[in-house]
What we know:
- This protein is of the alpha+beta class.
- It has helices at residues 15-46, 51-56, 139-150, 165-172, 202-210, 229-249, 255-268, 277-288, 319-328; strands at residues 63-65, 79-86, 97-106, 111-116, 122-125, 129-132, 156-161, 175-179, 183-185, 190-192, 196-200, 215-217, 223-225, 269-272, 295-299, 302-305, 308-314.
- The protein has a domain at 15-168 and 257-336: Nucleotidyltransferase, domain 5 (2-Layer Sandwich).
- The chain is 35% helix and 23% strand.
- A seven-stranded mixed β-sheet has the order 1-14-7-2-3-4-15, sandwiched between helices. Strands 10-9-12-13 form a four-stranded antiparallel β-sheet.
- Mean pLDDT is 78; it is low at 1-49 and 339-349.
Amino acid sequence: MFEHLDDPRPPALGAGLRRRVARGAQRRRRRRTAGGVGAVLVASVAGTGGLYARALWPARDIERVEVAGTDSVPHGRPVTVLLLGTDGRSGVGSHNFDTIVLARVDPGAGTASLLSLPRDLIVDVPGEGPAMINSPTDPAAVVAIVEEQIGIPVDHLAVVGLDGVREMVDRMGGIDVRVPAPVRDEASGLFLDRTGCVTLGGEQALALLRSRKLEVLGSDGSWHRDPLSDLGRVERQRQVLFGALAGLGAGGFAPGDLEDDVRWLAAHVTVDADLSVAGMVELARAVVRLGPDDVSGATIPVVTSPLDPSRLALDAAAAPATIAAFVAGDPLPPTPPVTPGAPGVAAPDDPFSTAIGTC
């Protein structure tokens, strides 16, 4: 009776479709497994009297976006998060990303790695062609570029509005950075005249993150502009992240603080739809256990872009080793100096090589 429904030319169900169906089934199985572990994790964090459960309740208000490729990660396994910073509120689709950092957190090993990607890095942007990696305003597009063109799988995404950094740092009591010489940036409002290990409040931490025209006071008494341009800026941004991780590690899980932290997340952070509350809790638990020596960082090796001398391209000789080490969780190789001809090549005795560091 259904003969009239037969298609005389049925579609060919090729290997590509079979692979996609299989991947979808695997993803659903992983979600069910992670969901069961997540329920246990949330229950364990809830604590006596449900204080932690109440503290986590505002997490329902955290903004979420659908991102192809992200997925839940089994309990205890390493997690790679793409952190995108916008100079404004976290709302996606209206801001370019000024900060692009990959964070790999390994709860089992008790370590974390931070890999910075300069925003001046030229990639193939769908619909645009060669363009800076921060030109898409859709975070899903950046995830796809990182996975397909750089070769680093991304488990989760977090878009952070830099306008919330001031509040976060002040709530932490400040972050510590090493300042070998006085630095300033009149455009961002940065001015650090004390040297050594300095505690930054929220205002100065935000100014350091935003700094694009940093100057250092040289031994000749003159101010010298940072010649490393975007490369210098990503190094400073990573130092702020180091300081924030150290500050979080010095804290812990107190119900009142946790509720404030979750409310901050809801106000300033957007995550992928696959990052559950249980996943956030597990990440937070791993981060607060990190010590200063447990976190390493590097900038992905780059050279001058052949398409634009003021832009950057991946260093075909050095980048693969750094990428492989990051993905495997191995120690990151030292970032090689930018090759001659790249924007802002620094002389060996340039004071900017140690302008801002870790305490």
